[in-house]
Amino acid sequence: MLKGLSIAGYLAMVGGVLGLILTRSVFSCSPAVIVVQLVAVALMIWARVVFGRRSFHAAANPTEGGLVTTGPYRHIRHPIYTAVCLFTVAAVLAHWSWHAIILGGIVLVGAAARIIGEERLLADRYPAYRDYAARTPRMIPFVF
Questions:
Q1: What is the mean pLDDT of each run of 10 residues along the chain (144 residues)?
Q2: Distance CA 91, CA 100 (A)
Q3: Whose CA is closest to 71, among 85, 83, 55?
Q4: What does the domain layout of the chain look like in residue ranges?
């Protein structure tokens, strides 16, 4: 069930982003939006580099190699999902419309589904995850 939830979340995230691309609601000429989206891309790259050569799976699947708690993972548990959500929220705010809001919401709900499934699987695979989760926010320090 958790893997199914994570696949549904993944498909929602991909579908929402593709919808934003197809409706030309991703990029903006606004310097503020560009900066926020560049920060999101930088966060994603940093998290990917720190995560290492582990593969990405459509279904949440904790990989071998231990729990990663360095780099951006020291501050937030899900920096890649945070980056995708930050990039998406900037796009939605730049292209304020019902379709952008709905598509952005789909991405955010998809990310939440992935996080729920992934966290339960990580807690089962790595006993230290519970302590890590207790001291590290999911996405937004001091908030969530």
A1: 86 96 94 96 95 71 79 94 97 96 97 91 90 92 74
A2: 8
A3: 83
A4: 2-55+65-135
